[in-house]
Amino acid sequence: MKFPVKALALAIASISCVSTAFAEDAPTPNKVQRVEVTGSSIKRVQKEGAALVETVNRKALEKIAATTVQEVVKNVASLDFDDSYEQKSNYPSVSGSAFISMRGLSSGDTLILLDGRRLPKHAMGGGESFDINALPMSGIERVDILKDGGSAIYGADAVAGVVNFITKKNYQGGEIRSSFGQSSRGDGTEKTAGVTGGYGDLDEQGFNVFGSFDVLKRDPIYTKDREISNTADFSRFGGTDSRSSYSPYGNVRIKGKWQQVAPGCPTDLIRSNGQCAYDPYQDVLSLSTGADRKNLMLLGRVKLNETTQAYAQYLYTESKDRFEAHPAPGGMPYYKNGQMIDKNGAVTTDKAQQVFFNGRFMQPGRRVSEKENTLSNVVLGVDGQIIDFDWSIAGGYGVSRNNNSDSGVHKGKFFDALAKQQIDPTSMNNNQAIVDSLKIQSQREAKLEQAYFDAKISGETGLKLAGGAVVFAVGTSFTHEKLSDIPDQLQQNDQVYGSIKQVVTEGSRSGKALFGEVIAPVLKSLELQAALRYDSYQGGNAKFSPRLAARFQPISNLMVRASYSESFRMPTLQDLYQGPSQGAHTFADTECDYIPNLNAADLADCKKNGINGQRTTSSNPELKPEKGQSLNLGVVGEVGPFSGSLDWWMIKKDDVISDQTYLEALQAGQIAPSAEYGWMMTQKKKNRNKQENAGIDTDMKLRFPTSLATFTFSNNNTYYLQLKKSNDTGSMEEWVDTYGSPQWRNTFRFDVEQGGWTGGVGVRTTASFQDVNASPDDKDNYNPEARRVASHSEVDLTLAYTGIKNLRIDAAVKNVFDRMPEFSGVAAGTYSAPGFAPLYTARGSFYQLGVKYSF
Q: Known CDD domains for this protein (predicted)?
């Protein structure tokens, strides 16, 4: 495994930088107490260890006036931010959700924890990632971000790192809070309210109970209400006209030329090629989805004796979303004067020769999707000390449920009514009773269940080194997860017009693990850490995950740290057990060479005109885990009022799971004749790709306490040196500085504290990038002359007043200068974002006021 020596040397030489931009001010404890630190299974007094951990504490959360966990993610440069699912309402499974990713990898490579333990992942997303919208802001005390891989400590899915949300502990008192926010355009209104309470002192009374309840309601913002997205014709920005050809007036190709099926298309919608365009962005599509969420968290801890405590944690969240979409587009058989017409405009009696037109049946009205997501998770545990050893035993059970109810039109009945000439799909004056008889309400229900048990013990080994006692931790865990994602028969049978066929996913698996960790203080200035975890999953998948780390502190204000770890990620249950999904495919060009038994004439015709068929994409129960390796090297320094850190990192992944390409499936002989479709090609998921990512993180903080006020400057930055992925031939291609992959992200803050006042300025900046969705190494598709999407910055102002006893007032103006995203031609040509990359939002300036009363 080769790593760039020059980059390592540069990282070692550059001793400039930060304790994290959101670093927690260390309190002066009254007594020495060991605490559990993210990135280690061993409780310890010293918090700053060999692991690269960034902390966002409660004070930092208040400074940025975050009302959701997603807002926190936006303000941490090392976390990749993609707002796709909170922007668009046409993702059938995950609209309204939010996921965290790191290091340029997928969200499935980042493990999300609550107090060090796993949470059930989003069921309708195939069990790949946890939806962070399910977490309540009021119960979170801090966020720890482990950025150098964590499989040796936490098991699978921690390839890129771990984000650990830590709840409030031993909380007494209560608070009532509320906030109101609205965009400068009067939309996107957001209201929050909540109550928090805690009772009992664990040390004095022997127990503590804590509860919080949050409510958030947010109105959507529509594409029609922002200049960048008020039409899908992006030619005004130098882009393409992405308006739909599926028009209510119908577009049919006769004798090689387009014409309307019905008269009346407005002049401004007629394209130069004769098609009548339809603009989906000028009505109901959302640019920022609405939200209706409720979060409940309950925590309890009780002393059983002086050395033993029992605890329970319960999390429940519920979100309801309503999305509206245009009437469904699709192909429709063309009739003229009640007769079937072929592609030459002639009357035909052969259905195989009948031409179809691109249309949109408007009379049934808008499609409405009602989504309800719930998550419940309970943890029960006991921990304590025996002799000088810390021990803990815990078990948990969680369920993520996602239910969709979608209105639509029955495909079979619709085509039958067309064939019988009972309706005219280009008219709004059909018999309403017949139209109503075509309407359907389809259902899809998904559930992911997770259960686990873990136990561990840690303490001193009795072996003393020059720096102190060698400490250890050993433990075991058992997990079980079960996924069911069941569309109703209408969706399974492909009977929802304008939709795609939905498939069933049902599967489960169990796993068990043994792990151990040792920290050896070789010298007072040198600490070594070693961890090893063995995971075994159902189906014979087993993996050792080692971790080696070192911490060297030659002087009190300088520390050097390094780590190497190996990690793995299990295939999702969807990868293993999803039913086959089917779609149309036209075989052409070199694909034709692999269709069996074609004579010379048929082969030539295939290459010239193509042969229509179908393809099936299927899961693969024989998939292996994806494997990863990571290397990190960094320095942490402090000089007077300045503190900072610089860390170089690299991650390599092998056996990355993806679908076979069409050509790979054909070369493997996965094609057969089909009586219904002519030819049927089968694609399988395979362990077929590689990734190699590298970058540098810098965090800086400068704090000046003066008689006038305390001034704090902080800055954190993630700079990608490479984002490489293998292509279909196995060659590695570089993707840094291409669409959606800017080279760096930066967050700067300036805060002033004086008396009861706290004010701050935050600046979030993303680098420019080439507006092309291809690697520069792909000479056939990369366009070096493509326009660049400019760098984007947003400035936030926050102000808080705590001068009145028990009262806190927060005011914020987010995106003060009303910066809108830069247009992207790549985004304009896809459904992923309406004219701009989902790294940003088009909310614009947002005004927010919040009040909290404590008692």
A: ligand_gated_channel (cd01347)
